[in-house]
Every structure is written in C-alpha cells, then in structure tokens.
From TrEMBL:
Residues 626-637 have a biased composition (Low complexity). It comes from the Eukaryota. Residues 78-437 form the Aminotransferase-like plant mobile domain. GO terms for biological process: meristem maintenance. Keywords: Coiled coil. It comes from Colocasia esculenta. Residues 655-669 have a biased composition (Basic and acidic residues). InterPro entries: AminoTfrase-like_pln_mobile (IPR019557), MAIN-like (IPR044824). This is Aminotransferase-like plant mobile domain-containing protein. Residues 466-530 form a coiled coil. Residues 626-693 are annotated as: Disordered.
Length: 693
C-alpha cells in the first residue's frame, strides 16, 4: 500500500553539459537522435546524493563517547560505521527497469528475485526485528520541528526540513571541499567543526544534538528523499529517545525502497537507500562483474565491496547490463549466497533470524508493502511452486492528512507482530514453475539488444528445468555424503573395544545399530543409484530437447532471411517498374509540351495563311479591275499605256463619289449645294498624231 506524503527522493540523476530545465529524461533527449545512435548515446550522468556519507561519517566521528554508546544501544552503530560506496547508477537503473509492481519482485529470465530482510540485515547492519516503524502522520510538522529540533519551518503544511539548517546546527556549515584540500583534511576539518559545536555532557543540549543527527541519518539515508530537504514523518518517534532502538528500521528501509522501485520509469531519481540494492546484486549476480571485494571478513557486508568504475556512457552501460542479464546461465545465479557466512560476528543477524523466510507486511508510516516470498522461494533454498504472482492487497494514494496508521492498517500491523507466515515448499521440483513462468512473462523478461531468439520461450524454461535437476542431484549427493559420514562414525563406534561386560545392554544396542547401519547403507546405495539414474536420464533428455530447440531458431532465422530476400527482390522489381513508369510519365510530359508548341506554330501558320488569302483576294480583285479597265479602254479608245493611270483615277473617282454621296445624305433639305458631277478625263491623243485642222 502506498499512502504518499509530499516528500521527494534521496538521489537524482545529474546530467552534465545539458540543462536540466530543457531535458528532464533521457528518453526525451533520445527522441532527437537517429535510431542507430541510441545504443551509443553518450549522456554523462551520475546518481548524486544530496548529502553524502562523508558528512554523516565526519559528524559521527565528532560525537562524544557517551553519544556513541547511545547510538550503539539504538542499533545504528554498525550502519554509521559503514564506509562510503560509490553508486553504480547503471546497475540500479537496469534493475529498476526489471521491477514488476504487480508481484513486487524483479523479473529475470531465470525467475523472480527480490531483496529480503536477511539481505537488509547482513548488508546494512540495521535491525529488522522489533516494533514496526509506524504511528501518526500530520498535515503540518511545524510544531514538532520547533519543539523537538528548535528549528523554524517555512511552509505550514510541509513535512520537510532544510538539510543545510540541520547540517549547520551540528557545526558543519559547509560540506564542500576547499581548493587544494585533500579528502583526509576535508574529513578532519568537518569532524573538528562538529566536535566543537556539539555538547560534551549529557543533558538537554545533548538530546537536541542527538535528535538533529538522527533526523539527518534517517531522513537522508534510511528513508531518503529525492530533493535536498529532509523528511520528518518519523519525528513523533524522536519524542522518546530511549525507545528508538526498539524499531525495525531495516524493515522500514526495505519498504521505502520497494515503494520507490514501483514509481514510473521516466523518473530520473528514485528515493531510498540504493547501496543495499547494489550490493544485493553483487552477491546474487556475481557474473555481472560490477563490484569487487576490497576487504575480507568485513561486516556488515556492504563495506566488503567497492564499485568498479566504468567510463562508458550511462545508456551504453545499461544496455550491456541488460544483455548480460538476458544471457546469464542459470547455474551462475546465487540464490543463497550467505550459507558460508559467520554469524558469530553479526549479532544483528541472530536477532533478526525469526523474521527471515516469511511472508510479511513491511511498514513505514503511510507506506505498507508486502514482502512476498512465495514467488521467490528459491532465494530460501526451497523448490519453487506455481502460484498466483499478483501482489496481495490493494494500493491507493491519498492526500497528506492526520492519520493514525496503527488503526488504519491494523490487519497488516497484526501480521507484523505475529512475524508473518512461514513459507514452506510444496513442490518436489521447479519444472512446473519454470514452464508457467515462461508462459506468463515470455519476452517481458528480456530487455537487452541481443535477446536470444526463442519465440515459445521453451529454451529458457528447459534451461531452468535442467538447472533445477542438476541442483537436485547435487543436494542428493550432499545428503548421501552426510549420511555416509554418519554411517562411518556409527561403524567406528560398533567396531571399537567391547565393553559388554561392563554394560550387558550395550552389546544388544551395538548389534541393533550395526544392523540398522547396514540397512541404511543398502537403502542409501539404492537411493543414490536410482536418483542418479533418474537425474542422468532427465538431464540427457533435456539436453536433447534443448539442442533440438536451439536448431529451430536457426531454421527460423534461415526462413526469415529467405523471406527477407524475397521481399527485397519484390521491392527491387517494384522499384524497376516504378522507374519505368516514371520515365514513361516524363516522356508523356515531353510529348505534351511538344504538342503544345506545335499547336502554337499551327496557329501562327494559320494566321499567316489567312493574311495571304486576304492579299490574294485583293490581288484577284485588282486583276479583275485591270481586266475590266482594259476592256473599257479598248472600247472607249483609251490607249493601253494609260490604263494604270485610268485605274488610279477611277479608284479616286469612286472614293470621291462615295464621299459626295455621304455628304448629300448628311446635308439638310433645301440646300443649294448639290453633288458635282466630275467629267471623265479627256483622253490624250496618241503620240505622233496631230490635231485635225
């Protein structure tokens, strides 16, 4: 269940060279890049804590001896002595992308996995037993902050306190390293500043210093927020400092981390204590090679590891981690990595053991989440059964308000007080689980770019079954070896010096023991032979099926390539046809343009022909007039030499007559002026002739 406050998270992705106001997520920036560049996208990012371990460790080193003893009594001593671990942001991001909020577990090709309370107590040293971290939440924490911490709160409805104010109250005004200052000098300077500010004797001032420091430790590391301010929902628990050691802060840390993993994948920062998840992956998935042991025998186990830095881009690292997770062999997964650990040096593990391996509800005020072991029974060394993988209970979000969670979630709180319910195995093998897991999740468990071709997910299922069979064989071998050792011890006892005289009943007991030992030896031999034969036959059968199934993807690849080749040939043919039609269209356009030019030329030629016809008709009329004038001349005796002049005169005469006619039509009636009749010109006598006398 999630009942959120208005808090943020302890860590955030800091992006270099790119303004965070313009780009909020990597997916938004990657949308501007070509697809081929997504896998090599070199966005420089790192997971940055608002308040690092260095400041808290420096303040802790500056505490007085009596304050250190008080922290040891509360159970925070092992946690505060941890050394800083560089955060592996790529590993955390890859794991977060594989979190399934429905079943509250990670989805891997080999099955479900989830951090448990045993992981928390062994890695961090925080106690997971005791009272649940719960109580009453308030709309405003102003009164509590002013009364318990002596600080001012700006927002009346805020549940956050400024980190810089708390830090300055403890004497560390600035946590930044000065120019030219080494790390050791920086830590020593902050320690001296804290020691000079905090009280040296018990009293109200010492209690106030203790509350300030607890607010920093719990609000910024155990229940960290995304932003710089510190959450203070737990302030009511600081009212009585003597009871701080009674709460299961490790369980609250795990509940807060689970709730943070269930947020949207678009968020660049997630609240919670990430080093827990990081070291958990180092132990359970050693083949990833993301961490290296730096100190043998160190406890809690978190300070045993250090992160191997990787200079490649964040997106490239995440892709490579997904590829590695998709191809990790089943046998390389460490389901129970703490078998060889020495619990004598870890008393906090002994106290928390009654809570290990049980279905239980985890509490952190308004955050109540289930720790469901049944889907991850393999992490307990049990056979995995097929069960419903949905998350038990319901989740809802409410506004921040005054709520008493001891009443609101009474059923879940009673479950914690009863230490949950023990998880037992009801299956003889993991075969059914692996088959059901492959059917339900299929390709959902694969995130990398080099995902193996397994359409029916049968290869993954058979690999899991094969690994389960090998594991069963190894377990049976271990049982047989143990029983053989006990049998050897019994035989040695039977074969020792006889003392029947001293104890008459001992000889009878030795005989019965020898007979029972012989029968046990025969039964074990038969059991071993039968189990080994069964396991060998099953292994051989599974290997044959896996080999056959591995050939199927190759045939499928060949068929797919053949289909792609045929598709390419069709595309080439269609491209050739398209090219041919494009040439035809271009030719048609060219012919259409030429036809238009020809039409234009024909119009011009037609116009010239009309003009020539008009000229020809004019010439024909002129020739007809010339012919008529010649005939008139021949009849009137006009010499032929004057024919042209006569024609010209006749033409002028006709024009004059036409003008005169028009003038008469325009002249008013009674006008004396009338048309004049022009006498035809007198014909000239031919040359060489005289006038008659």
């Amino acid at each position: 269940m999630r009942f959120p406050e208005s808090d943020g998270g302890s860590v955030a992705l800091r992006r270099r060279q790119i303004p965070c106001r313009l780009i909020r997520t990597e997916s938004y920036l990657c949308s501007f890049l070509p697809t081929s560049d997504l896998l090599v996208f070199a966005l420089q990012s790192e997971l940055r804590s608002r308040l690092g371990w260095a400041v808290i460790r420096a303040i802790y080193d500056g505490l007085s001896d009596f304050q250190v003893r008080r922290f040891e009594g509360m159970g925070f001593g092992p946690f505060l002595r941890l050394e800083e671990l560089a955060l592996d942001v790529a590993l955390i991001q890859a794991l977060k992308e594989r979190w399934d909020p429905e079943c509250h577990a990670f989805l891997f090709p080999w099955g479900h996995m989830v951090p448990t309370l045993e992981d928390v107590v062994r890695i961090t040293g925080l106690r997971v037993d005791g009272q649940a971290v719960t109580g009453t939440t308030y709309t405003s924490y102003q009164e509590l902050v002013e009364r318990l911490l002596g600080l001012e709160v700006r927002g009346e409805r805020s549940s956050l306190v400024q980190r810089t104010v708390l830090q300055a109250s403890l004497g560390v005004v600035s946590a930044r390293r000065q120019t030219g200052e080494e790390q050791a000098e920086h830590m020593e300077r902050m320690t001296d500043d804290a020691r000079a500010e905090m009280a040296e004797e018990e009293g109200e001032a010492a209690d106030r210093d203790l509350r300030w420091f607890l607010t920093l430790v719990i609000g910024k590391m155990i229940l960290g927020t995304r932003g710089d301010p510190v959450g203070c929902r737990f302030l009511p628990l600081l009212e009585d400092l003597s009871s701080m050691g009674n709460y299961a802060w490790g369980a609250a840390l795990l509940a807060h981390l689970f709730d943070s993993l269930g947020t949207s994948s678009r968020e660049t920062g997630v609240s919670g204590f990430f080093p827990l998840l990081q070291v958990w992956a180092y132990y359970h998935l050693p083949s990833l090679g993301r961490g290296v042991a730096r100190r043998c025998g160190a406890v809690p186990l978190l300070q045993l590891w250090q992160f191997c830095r990787d200079e490649r881009s964040l997106r490239r690292q995440v892709t490579l981690i997904h590829d590695a997770l998709d191809t990790v062999p089943f046998g390389h997964v460490q389901w129970t990595p703490y078998v060889g650990e020495d619990d004598a040096t870890q008393p906090w593990v002994k106290r928390g053991r009654p809570y290990f391996g049980r279905d239980i509800w985890l509490h952190c005020f308004n955050t109540v989440v289930p720790l469901h072991h049944r889907p991850v029974a393999q992490t307990l060394g049990l056979h995995q059964a097929v069960r419903s993988w949905e998350r038990p209970g319901h989740s809802f979000r409410g506004i921040q308000q005054v709520t008493d969670w001891t009443v609101r979630v009474r059923e879940q709180l009673d479950d914690w007080e009863r230490r949950g319910k023990e998880v037992v195995s009801e299956a003889a093998s993991d075969e059914d689980y692996f088959r059901a897991y492959a059917r339900k999740y299929g390709a959902q468990v694969y995130k990398g770019s080099r995902r193996p071709l397994d359409p029916e997910e049968r290869i993954s299922s058979l690999e899991g079954i094969l690994h389960s069979t090998i594991q069963q064989r190894d377990d049976l071998q271990a049982v047989v070896d143990q029983l053989r050792e006990e049998l050897d011890c019994a035989q040695q006892m039977v074969g020792g010096p006889s003392s029947s005289r001293e104890d008459p009943g001992r000889s009878v007991l030795e005989g019965q023991l020898a007979s029972a030992a012989a029968r046990a030896e025969d039964a074990l031999a038969q059991l071993r032979e039968r189990e080994l034969r069964t396991a060998l036959a099953r292994t051989t059968m599974l290997e044959a099926e896996m080999a056959e199934l591995r050939l199927r993807p190759e045939a499928a690849e060949v068929a797919r390539w053949r289909q792609e080749a045929e598709a390419v040939a069709r595309w080439q043919q269609e491209a050739a046809e398209a090219t041919h039609w494009r040439l035809e269209v271009e030719e048609a356009v060219r012919l259409r343009a030429e036809a238009g030019d020809l039409r234009t030329q024909m119009g011009e030629e037609r116009h010239r022909g009309d003009m020539l016809r008009s000229e020809m008709r004019g010439l024909e009329r002129a020739l007809a007039l010339v012919g008529r004038s010649r005939s008139v001349t021949s009849r009137s005796g006009i010499p032929s030499g004057y024919a042209g002049h006569y024609l010209t005169g006749s033409s002028r005469r006709r024009r004059n007559e036409e003008e005169e006619r028009r003038r008469r039509e325009r002249a008013p009636e009674g006008s004396e002026s009338g048309p004049r009749v022009m006498a035809p010109p007198s014909p000239r006598p031919p040359e060489g002739t005289g006038e008659s006398g």
